[in-house]
Amino acid sequence: NCQVPVFTAIELRKQVDVKDIAALKIESIRQAFGRWMDVPEVWKPQTRETADHSLPATVAMALLDGTITPKMMEEGRFKDADTLANEAARIYGEIGGGANLMLAPLSLLSHSYFGREDWGNALKQLDRMRSLIEAADDVSRRVFRGSAETAIVLVKGGRVEQGLRMAQTTLADMLRNFGKDPPRTAEVRGAHAIALAASGQDEVALREFAEATRVMLSPEAAVIDVDGSALQRIKRRVIIEAYIELLARVRDGDVVRKLGIDPAGEAFRLADAARAGSVQKALAASAVRADRKST
Fold first, then answer.
1. pLDDT in tens, 124-163
2. How wide is the angle at C-alpha 17 spanned by C-alphas 24 and 80, nearest 5°?
3. Would you say 140 and 148 are in contact if contact means Cβ atoms under 8 Å apart?
């Protein structure tokens, strides 16, 4: 069922310039849709087996490369976000797609570098995005102007004050619009804590880290985020590691005594909670998959 769309994509590539394709509509039988499209994993495949049965991934590779070979699967072409995003940015640039279209692949590139903790290159993509944001529409400006990952990249890239300002503004918006308990608000609070710690505001940073991890590591967050992206998992790991690093740095200082924190005990609590959250997420994911099969 994946092969017919792939062969069609290869033939389409011979007749149409890929850069002229704005969207694809693929019609398939219900069984193919249920197995190879209506599953979150196939849209972001992390293994060769998943990619091999992912209609979106195989069709995209066929269009971009003109073929699909076992070697491409072995080399992880299906995970090559940099290549895909760069190709998209190049195509949009050639066709004059405008700021709204260009922001998406640049954001994907920034996320890809974030995942590898390549802060310098992630920062370069943010700078490219900043030059486009003012020319974008209101919706795109709101989406791309501020986020937890953007604030973290700014701090890790050496622009601490800028990252702190962004984290403060974004956190205020999240609290006003969604409240303090959603996991996404907690991620922004964690980014705020990272910026505070980098600027030497240890006491406030410890308070913010404690509140952020309370939500991020709760069983409820694990269930809500059962289909969470790799970027979200990496974000949370970066936040937790930054919290542990701060605890280690201030472990003998007055600030931990003032706040009544046991640095070693808190670090162990974070590790245990993170493991428990992973187990809870795995159980929830299993339940979701079972429910899908039953329906």
1. 888 888 877 777 777 666 656 678 999 999 999 999 999 9
2. 70
3. no
- Structural Rg of the chain based on CA atoms: 22
* pLDDT tens readout for residues 36-79: 666 666 666 667 777 777 777 788 878 877 877 776 665 565 55
Residue of 24, 19, 117, 13 lying closest to 65 (CA atoms)? 13
DSSP sequence for the chain: --HHHHHHHHHHHHHS-GGG---------HHHHHHHTSSHHHHS--SHHHHHT-HHHHHHHHHHHS---HHHHHTTGGG-HHHHHHHHHHHHHHHT-HHHHHHHHHHHHHHHHHHTT-HHHHHHHHHHHHHHHTTS-HHHHHHHH--HHHHHHHHHTT-HHHHHHHHHHHHHHHHHHH-S-SHHHHHHHHHHHHHHHHTT-HHHHHHHHHHHHHHHTSHHHHHHTTT--HHHHHHHHHHHHHHHHHHHHTTTSHHHHHHT--HHHHHHHHHHHHHHHHHHHHHHHHHHHHHHHH-
Reported pTM: 0.65
DSSP string, 213-225: HHHHTSHHHHHHT
